[in-house]
Amino acid sequence: MNRVVFVAFLFLLFGCSSKTTHLADNVIAKAFDKTLTQRDLTPILEQAKDSPDSVKFIENYLKKWAIDEILYKEAADYYRNDEQINSQVEEYRQTLVLNKYKQALAEEKSKAPTTEEIASFYVKNKSNFTLSEPIIKGAFLSITNGSPNIKHLREAMKKLDRESIDEIERISLKHPMTYSFFLDKWVKLSDVSYMIPKNIMVNISGFASNKMYEYKDSVLSYMFKIVDFKSQNSAMPFELAKDEIEYLLKEKNDKIMLDRYLEELFAKQQKKGNIVINIKK
Known about the structure:
Helix content is 54%, strand content 17%. By secondary structure, it is of the alpha+beta class.
């Protein structure tokens, strides 16, 4: 069933049933002073769409919601004067508000690290950024044995300049073949290994930059050109480490900014007499 039609149908179904209890048109369920509207139920309706019995799925959800509200009301009445719970609730609220406000302050007042700062950090801490697996830049191609273009494709794969890439793409329009270029950004070798024959992958210890590897089985000829190669545990290229460094420096800047702001805020309120700390030394 079309998603929009399905959602409209369920809204209509539950909307009709709600009118018998004199609820507002957009209210699906009510428990004491709490209500669930059609808008509140939108995520649940999406889940219900995949259920064998969509109506039952929603009915069960609404029943559980109502039982939780009933139980919470009883518990709140039972613990109304419980100082420990009231204190814990207030502590949780204070922690939540403080954390949200600190995040807002960081977004408003902290500065993002510059490209120069990121690059400088990378140079000074390069040994801390190593690769957990090999990465490559290059290209892969496979074509049916006996194709009249194999020689041209081999030469193009060896060069992989703009003209050669255009040549490969032109040939692909006339002769079926599989190819993939990953020349402009680093990729994990494991992410492209599914394309590469095992007879080539067994030589992974000998992989190096600017090398071409070929293999032919009974059906296809394979060409795998590595333009640039970084082995496992070697230094991570700057472009891969950049985002992580930017995050680390941003966290550091946020902490410095927040510590400074809180010290200034403390001194300001202390000067006004709103903060008094009386410790006898």
